[in-house]
Amino acid sequence: MTGQQAGSAHLGAVVAAALAGLLFGFDTAVIAGVTHALTDSYALSPSGLGAAVSAALVGTLVGALAAGVPGDRYGSRTVLIWIGIAYIVSAIGCAASPNLSLFIAFRLLGGLAIGGSSVLAPVYIAEISPPERRGRLVASFQLSIVVGILAAYLSNALIGIAYDAPDMWRLKLGVAAIPACLFLLLLLRIPDSPRWLLQKGRVDDARRAFTRLAMPDADRLMADASTADTATGQEKLSWSAHRKPILLAIAIAAFNQLSGINAILYYLGDIFAMAGFDSLSADLQSVAIGIANLFATLIGMMLIDRAGRRLLLLIGAAGTAIALAGVATIYTLDRGQALLLPMLVGFILFFAVSQGAVIWVYLSEIFPTAVRARGQSLGSAVHWGLNAIIAFGFPIVAQGSRAMPFWLFAIAMLVQLLVVWRYFPETRGTRLEDGIGPLTGEVRHGKPHHDDHAH
Fold first, then answer.
1. Is pLDDT above 60 for 441?
2. CA 82 to CA 80: how far, in whole Å?
3. Fewest 10 Å CB contacts: which of 197, 219, 255, 323?
4. Quick one: CA torsion of 159, 154, 152, 398, rounded to 10 degrees?
């Protein structure tokens, strides 16, 4: 295999796994373009529409909780193949559903796929990536999510222009099956994670996977993984053995949602309406926020392996706190509405370059190989659980005080700044087999523990 072919094989494996993020983003955002049509087609009450939209959110929580154990047992690639099938069935099923009950069932299936993707795709990418590029490559999952959200907005707009008919919402939902089929086909062409294969004692299979992926220093990586704490492959995620990474996973996932990111994106139109901007186009607002999100995610990907995860989190916490406080001040004083869009764009920029780029990378690095998928599952479940709670509570709190949700989000970001500064270790370049280190959970400041050093 030539160097160019080797590089293509590795990049192809990363792209295949990262496509899970595109489906994640597309499936999450596409529903925004069909809510009115759903209401008309199924004669939905507000609660019925809420059930149809939120079914996927329930699925994401269950999927995130359930994906870890089979991911550790059967390998992330194998379970991702079944997730790809679920995406296809969900897209076609939603498009063809003759009644609300079936629609909700297929939305729930799509949610299960989203939750599973958020656990296993970053794990697979982390395990096949060299340490010096791991942050950037795992962050490609987040980039794919952002691209998927923009693709959903664009797809909805184009279908609405080209196919103006009462049942066009079915086409908007069904088109997601196309990238899902591509995702499935690409997964069938890539190997299982060689680190997972070694952890299962399948040394010959691991060597072949290392060769197919052309991972540098494969012999040394095999030696490292073989001497890691993976003797039986049956290590359990436990508080006594993994207290530090468990707390870090809960913290980074919780602060990700306590920033208010998903609540703000879900209720963006209402946020502008509360400030008196009834005439603004919701589609244009979404595109402006989406472009800012994409731009900042790309910057985060460029910086994550240079500046490190911890520094980006610190900068993002400070920036989002300032932007959120600005939004809250506009609502508190009921003036300065012209600054609302710049403040929200600023929030998105600081969020995407920090927490958006870092969360899936950090979760994939802090747990040792034997329990990585289960650890990622824990972090993802916290992420999706708080997402559901905050998304439900936002309009209730905002009804009493338009400013209050944003003050609460800003305070949470100040707390995050202190917690990250005091407790979060830098994971850039750490030896992936060990997670963040010994059972004492000591924070590694200064020089990271690199894969490319002898042990």
1. no
2. 5
3. 219
4. -110
